[in-house]
Amino acid sequence: MNTNNNYKRKLSIIIHILGWALFGLVIFVLSPLSAGVERPIEFWLKQSLNFSLLISIFYINFFYIIPKVLFKNKILIFLLINFLIGIACIAILIIYDDWVNMQELMHRAYRPDVPYTPRPRNYYWDISSLLIFFMAVGISTSIASVQKWQSEEELRVEQKQQQINSELTYLKAQINPHFFFNTLNNIYSLTNIDVEKAKTALLKLSRMMRYVLYETEKTHTLLSKEIDFVKDFIELMRLRLSSKVNLEIEIPEKFEDASIAPMLILPFIENCFKHGISSQQVSKITISLKVDKKQLILITKNGIFKSNENTPEGNASGIGLQNTKRRLDLLYDNNHELVINDKNPENEYHVHLIINL
Fold it and tell me: In this predicted model, what pLDDT tens digit does every residue of 277-334 receive, in sequence order?
């Protein structure tokens, strides 16, 4: 980062030097030489003085007047200061002309054979010089304004990114604990029913914990790892399902791998098992996961059983869904589409999620 800043600073200095050199060469050297008249040394000294004043007003305006006056919203004062500085610069040039008797020197250069007769000063060149000074003020103001806008934009983007990272860290911290809380409750229930199934569940949970510990620390993981994680979760849930639950799962074995934010799919899958299972009624859960043309398509359907909504697990699942929606908005913004429908004749909870990978 520091190396990049040093490079930009050096490049900016070089651009300024080359820009001023080209401007000074064209306006204050080549333009007078194009007249084909040999001019006195006093003229070239005036050109140097004029050029020095121009550079001075540019950087005084750039580093001091603009930040301390214009950017403080004191526009009239800014215009007045620059007008007075411009007049002062022209006054310095007029005083110099009178001191070296520039009018007579230029007359001798252009009309050496004609006797010199003093005449009133022609202010045409003074007005031209004043306009050049105002041009320098305008350019310095434009450059300073653009740099301020770029700096504020970079700061805004950096702050937004920091906010996103902070929110994502907070959201993942909320999702992961309640997921493990639910899963450990399931395994605890299995120990009273089938010890072998409980052992199998623990092995799957250990693999899932490894994923959560290592992969969720990253901003992105492989889609294949995320899908394997979902498969383990479903198999873990399947171990405790009764014969009253009809589970339809469609997950591809082969697909084109891609990058995805970790723990995005799980809350929707978990929600199916938290709200879509009844101990007394026949229930059905449908989970379809497809990867097609760099798009992840998740479709879930499950019944809605009110008895599950007031349980700790049901409330936790709601928190997980809310946080996942927020993560989708932060990470995928316009690259995802989420449609949730819980108002339908079938009294089912439908989720249709599309993520552009």
Answer: 877 788 899 999 999 888 999 999 988 876 544 444 444 445 567 778 888 888 888 8
3-state secondary structure of 306: helix
**Single-letter code of the amino acid located at 269:** I
Tokens of 208: 């899932």
Closest CA to 285 of 308, 256, 263: 308
Amino acid at 268: F
Contact 227, 238 (CB under 8 A): no
How far is 306 from 122, CA to CA, in rounded Å? Answer: 94
**The two three-digit tokens of residue 222, written as one number:** 């492989």
Nearest to 284 by CA among 232, 343, 242: 242
193-356 belongs to CATH 3.30.190.30: no
Q: What is the pLDDT of residues 157-175, one digit of tens each?
A: 888 777 776 766 665 665 5
Domain ranges of the chain: 2-156, 193-356
Q: Which residues of 2-34 are buried (b: 16+ CB within 10 A; e: fewer)?
A: eeeeeeeeeeeeeeeeeeeeebbeeebeeeeee
On whether the pTM is more than 0.90, the answer is: no
Cα 184 → chain centroid? 40
Residue 247 in contact with residue 241, Cβ under 8 Å? yes
Q: What are the residues facing 290 on neighbouring strands?
A: 297
Supply angle C-alpha 350, 211, 164, rounded to 5: 70
Structure-token pair, residue 255: 């697909």
